[in-house]
């Protein structure tokens, strides 16, 4: 499907085509059109990262114990909620993994919400972005499992609680774990793509009034999908490290 080029992508292609082509060539994936190596979802990810960096850069010097501002209250509320969730799901060691869970949550949330702004698109409505987040989660919780439990202890986790059924449980568990990135990807991509398309359809039919309702629904789905992705990351981490932490 040929996608239209966003204005921000056009700027990337105009001024940064050279670096992009060099990186793609080094990766063995030369661009189909060297004049336009930047895709919308790639450019939008850089925009989201820039927005996050500016947001936290503005927030940091305004942090105050005595007179916290509205922005600080909001982020403290989100931080407290995520910290509480990691403790509840993973256990007392949960906050040790908060940096990854929080990073995923904010990146996905801002990626979901930026599509509401006219002339922008949500990068999460393109499969490679949710897939990248899902592969990061998959790699991280497995690496934590090996690190915390040790190779033997973590592999024993796949054999199940009954040793004489390990021959059956091991392949089932392996298939189940490899299906997780696919599940995370499809859930986030499908919800954001559907929400974006519904909003665009009603914007085309009735530019005022009715689309506001669907934009509100899109905002709710954006928060919900960010939370679900973060929550599932916690659940997978809990399954990977629970035995070691219990001991």
Could you provide a short overview of the structure?
The chain has 247 residues and is an all-alpha fold.
What is the topological layout?
Blueprint: H1 7-15, H2 17-26, H3 40-59, H4 70-89, H5 98-113, H6 128-157, H7 166-205, H8 210-246
Low-confidence stretches: none
Work out the helix count. Answer: 8
Write down the overall mean pLDDT: 89
Shape assignment: globular
Q: How many beta strands in the DSSP annotation? A: 0
Element-level helix/strand string = HHHHHHHH
Radius of gyration: 21 Å
Helical residue percent band: over 70%
The biggest sheet amounts to: none
Q: What's the domain count? A: 2
Distance between the termini: 52 Å
- Determine the structural class based on helices, strands and strand pairing: mainly alpha
Q: Name the beta content range.
A: under 5%
Task: Characterise this structure.
With 247 residues, this protein is mainly α. It has 2 domains: 8-38, no CATH class; 48-246. It has 8 helices and no strands. α5 runs antiparallel to α8, α6 packs antiparallel against α7 and α6 (128-157) runs parallel beside α8. The model has no long low-confidence stretch (mean pLDDT 89).
